[in-house]
Design goal:
heterodimer, A: mainly alpha, 9 helices, B: alpha+beta, six-stranded mixed sheet, 8 helices, about 50% helix
Chain lengths: ~190, ~300
């Protein structure tokens, strides 16, 4: 069943239709939340909250855009609200302080997985991913959402405009600034 | 194409959204510009790295957790609905209830100290009236007068004792001579009597209970003196058997005899005590058991006289 049919069925009272939508999009939503928030538990909490919002407001979905765009919009807004909340910011400050205790290296710290269970390449891959995530975590919320939607999730500019409500020029401008910031932190690793 | 224009288009070049004409211009510029070539290399590596990030998956119980969250939210909303819906009826009623509770609490707190003050007021009224009652007093010698009773707020208040004045006429026995006269010795004075001008008052609190032996005869050797002293000591010692106490003693220094005993006797035992005086002499003076009124104790001034 396509998204529209599932939505119709759910509005008609079929809870199973809602479950199907959750199973179809949970990884995309979760991944977006994880890249936006940089924390697994926070991402889990936010992703669940996204689907609760979907459940409660599905009847107001007018299908002017695709379900996935509408879903991404809810996800981006939920994550942005969490990013600016004082509790989240306090938690992230504590996390960064703990990270700095691990070593004297400047810039974002790396989470080093256990060597005994990963081949060298896998280890390097995970280290690089952790460094990139830390760099993303340092971006302001509006730039972060652009990087995640465009550079990680690969959404086209048009869909990003629908998700964020920004004009194309604004999106490109924010994206350019975000990439410039990431370049300062990642150039040594990437090139 | 200049560098600034080239750099502006590099991102779109990577994204593959440039029209063929623009794409050709960018490629031609990059081939001859080291800086733009470096920028392009970074953007390619960046896109490769970001696009290659591992997809993080939701936990296996994600759907279960979503339903649990929905149930919790429904319960909470159910409670809120019961409390506040319909809003126009329930909210004003609940606000009125809250205001009423606050009002009652404030009222009770204000009334608390007032209640205590009211309870104290009658006690003050009683204490204020006591001196007047005593001063006006029951006329000690009028047989029909009743003691003034101070107004009381309750039955537990103790009325001030009225002073009852009685005289004990001790019959005189002709003086047959005393042991001291025979011995030519000056009789010892009773212990504790101060030799001061005027009437000596002896504080006889805490004197020995009944049963104490008669003291040696003091003072001048008159026949009545012995009798008076004997009666004095006997009565003094018997006061304790009536649960009373000796407040003070008036002493006639000239006659060297006790002049009066000031006693406090429980009202209930007053009649019995006065009755016990008959064996020592004749009791004179108005005595009315009703005089005690509601007083717990009665002050009795017993004057000794020789008949």
């Amino acid at each position: 069943m396509d998204d529209s049919s599932l939505i119709r069925a759910f509005i008609g009272g079929e809870t199973a239709a809602f479950d199907n939508l959750v199973l179809r999009y949970k990884d995309k939503v979760f991944g977006l939340c994880y890249r936006m928030l940089g924390d697994y538990e926070e991402a889990n909490d936010s992703a669940q909250e996204v689907f609760v919002k979907v459940y409660r407001s599905i009847k107001g979905f007018r299908q002017e855009s695709s379900f996935s765009t509408w879903l991404y919009r809810i996800t981006a807004n939920t994550c942005k609200n969490k990013l600016v909340s004082s509790e989240f910011r306090k938690g992230r400050v504590m996390a960064r302080l703990d990270d700095k205790k691990d070593g004297d290296r400047p810039g974002p710290a790396a989470c080093i997985p256990d060597e005994s269970f990963s081949p060298r390449k896998e280890l390097e891959k995970k280290e690089r991913a952790a460094i990139i995530q830390k760099a993303i975590d340092l971006l302001p919320a509006d730039q972060r959402v652009m990087v995640v939607l465009r550079d990680i999730e690969g959404l086209p500019y048009g869909e990003i405009a629908e998700v964020t409500g920004h004009a194309l020029g604004t999106i490109k401008s924010k994206l350019s600034r975000a990439r410039g910031e990431l370049r300062k932190k990642l150039e040594g690793m990437l090139i | 194409m200049k560098c600034h224009e080239s750099k502006r288009l590099l991102a779109d070049y990577i994204d593959g959204i440039l029209v063929p004409e623009q794409r050709a211009k960018v490629e031609a510029h990059v081939a001859g510009c080291k800086a733009c070539r470096g920028e392009l290399e970074f953007l390619k590596a960046y896109a490769r790295e970001m696009g290659g990030l591992e997809k993080v998956k939701a936990p296996a119980d994600f759907l279960v957790k979503v339903h649990e969250r929905l149930e919790r939210r429904s319960e909470f909303e159910g409670i809120m609905r019961r409390l506040f819906v319909p809003v126009r009826i329930k909210v004003p009623l609940e606000l009125a209830a809250v205001i009423a509770v606050i009002f009652i609490v404030v009222l009770v707190q204000k009334k608390g100290p007032s209640a205590i003050e009211i309870a104290k007021a009658p006690a003050k009224a009683v204490q204020a009236e006591t001196p007047r009652a005593v001063a006006a007093g029951a006329p000690a010698v009028k047989p029909t007068a009743k003691p003034a009773v101070a107004k009381s707020a309750g039955p537990s208040k103790i009325e001030p004792a009225a002073v009852i004045r009685l005289a004990l006429l001790i019959p005189v026995v002709p003086d047959a001579g005393s042991a001291f006269e025979s011995a030519g010795q000056a009789p010892p004075r009773p212990a504790g009597i101060a030799a001061t001008a005027g009437i000596a008052s002896v504080q006889s609190r805490g004197l020995k209970p009944a049963g104490t032996a008669t003291r040696p005869l003091p003072g001048p050797q008159k026949g009545s003196a012995q009798e008076v002293w004997d009666a004095f000591f006997a009565i003094r010692d018997s006061v304790y058997t009536f649960r009373g106490r000796v407040v003070s003693v008036k002493y006639d220094k000239e006659a060297n005899t006790p002049e009066a005993l000031i006693l406090e006797i429980p009202s209930q035992r007053l009649s019995a005590f006065v009755g016990s005086l008959d064996k020592y002499g004749i009791v004179k003076g108005a005595f009315d058991a009703d005089r005690a009124g509601t007083a717990e104790t009665v002050t009795l001034e017993l004057t000794f006289k020789s008949s």
